[in-house]
Design goal:
By secondary structure, the chain is of the alpha/beta class. It folds into two domains: 241 residues, 3-Layer(bba) Sandwich (FAD/NAD(P)-binding domain); 138 residues, FAD/NAD(P)-binding domain (3-Layer(bba) Sandwich). The chain has 13 helices and 20 strands. It has a five-stranded mixed β-sheet with strand order 5-6-7-1-20, with no helix packed on it. It has a five-stranded parallel β-sheet with strand order 4-3-2-8-19, with helices on one face. Helix 1 packs across helix 13 and helix 6 packs across helix 10.
Length: 429
């Protein structure tokens, strides 16, 4: 069985950026690290069911897979535009914020250049410790392909980049199999399955909720939409220059150096730079839609402020939500044909994936270079991407620091690994 210097779980933007960083370090004279990535999707994809028309990125194109680490990289978004013969046209757009479709294509372009170092269509379901003598020397990564066949690979080091798992409020969890209730990450596919829906509830007030509201508003079947939010108002993201400094790569050092209580306070202070805060332009569009209703004395859509979903009942005639209005302190039940949960994501799935080696990982404490602290007789380095917000800051789940972070992980791998040619492992158990 082959032993890899590093196996990456997932091949989304974070691990693509890592592949780029390791390759460029090798070209710069560093030791070669034999890497392989395992991706459960059958080919590269990036939030395919939220690639809405007119949706654009919320961060600058300069925060791509490479620029902030190496502006001369051939994997920058600017070079992508050059190779696609669109650079001058993009300049004429006069924007820092490409369409989501275009940035997805950029990611796919970069991923395609590592086709020989990624296996698609396999889902990792277990990571097992491999003992040699009295220590854990390797990790056995088990995955299952779409035909059900199990594959095993050995690794000296592991990088887990599995992204967020959908957050479903507790009252909706019993209805996971009901096609009328679906999370925003599956929006485009699910809304097509609910094409006849005439009354739709959107739960949430963030960027995804706002984008979905405007998408539904423009659909030819003219559904009625209730945008259900716990807040008094939809607040815009704060992207002013001084606030945006919290997304700078060097702010990670400051965040990590603070005491836990101060970190928590900073996360609270700057929460509305990233959570429940659509772009101001989107908010203005929604306000304009609701204002025009008043002009025409029509009520197609509603913004239900300070409303909470207290209970859910699925019946043949629709989904019945019991809503509690915190302004009037009254509850009412409303029937919908479909419900969209724009309720965000959780960042704990890496712990589930690493259950079999959890006894060696303590409380999953992550060091400055994104490596999980392990017991003394556990040799493999286990890095995680996108799961360090409490210690590394709000930028950790975003593209803002991806290029720099993967450079740091690459340096840590070079310092801890013992790169060599692929080796055949015989009798490793």
């Amino acid at each position: 069985m082959l032993i890899y210097d590093v196996l990456g779980i997932g091949f989304g933007p974070s691990n693509i950026a890592l592949a780029i960083a390791l390759e460029e370090k090798r070209q710069g004279g560093a030791s070669n690290i034999d890497m392989m990535f395992i991706e459960r999707q059958k080919s590269f994809t990036w939030h395919p069911n939220m690639l809405l028309d007119h949706a654009h990125m919320q961060i600058s194109f300069l925060k791509d897979l490479a620029t902030l680490r190496n502006p001369t990289s051939r994997f920058t978004f600017v070079n992508y535009l050059h190779e696609k013969q669109r650079l001058q046209d993009f300049i004429n757009l006069k924007t820092f914020f490409p369409s989501r479709h275009e940035f997805c294509d950029y990611f796919a372009w970069a991923a395609a250049q590592f086709q020989d170092r990624c296996v698609y269509g396999e889902e990792v379901f277990d990571v097992l410790p491999e003992k040699r003598g009295g220590e854990i020397a390797l990790l056995r990564v088990r995955s299952r392909d779409r035909s059900g066949e199990v594959h095993e690979r050995l690794a000296r080091n592991l990088v887990v980049s599995v992204g967020g798992s959908v957050h479903v409020p507790e009252c909706f969890r019993p209805f996971a199999s009901d096609a009328r209730i679906f999370h925003s990450h599956n929006y485009l596919r699910s809304i097509e399955a609910n094409a006849e829906a005439r009354t739709i509830a959107i739960i949430g007030a963030g960027q995804s909720a706002a984008e979905i509201f405007m998408d539904l508003h423009g659909r030819p079947n003219a559904p009625q939409i209730d945008l259900i939010a716990r807040a008094r108002a939809i607040r815009p993201s704060d992207d002013s220059p001084f606030v945006n400094e919290i997304f700078n790569a060097d702010f990670v050092d400051h965040m990590f150096s603070r005491a836990p209580a101060e970190r928590l306070e900073m996360l609270r202070e700057f929460r509305h730079t990233n959570y429940a805060c659509p772009d101001l332009e989107l908010i203005q569009q929604i306000f304009g839609v609701l204002y025009e209703q008043k002009v025409k004395e029509q009520t197609r859509h509603r913004l239900l402020r300070r409303h909470e979903v207290r209970s859910v009942r699925a019946a043949d005639d629709g989904v019945h939500l019991t809503l509690f209005d915190r302004n009037s302190e009254r509850a009412s039940t409303v029937r919908y044909d479909a419900v969209v949960l724009a309720t965000g994501y959780e960042r704990e799935y890496h712990k589930t994936m690493l259950t079999s080696v959890a006894p060696y990982l303590g409380d999953f404490e992550i060091d400055r270079h994104y490596r999980i602290k392990t017991s003394s007789h556990f040799r493999p380095a286990v890095f995680v991407q996108g799961a360090s917000e409490p210690t590394h800051g709000l930028s950790d789940t975003l593209l803002s620091v991806t290029a720099v972070r993967t450079g740091e992980i690459g340096d840590a791998l070079l310092a801890t690994a013992q790169p060599s040619e692929r080796q055949i492992a015989v009798g490793v158990h």
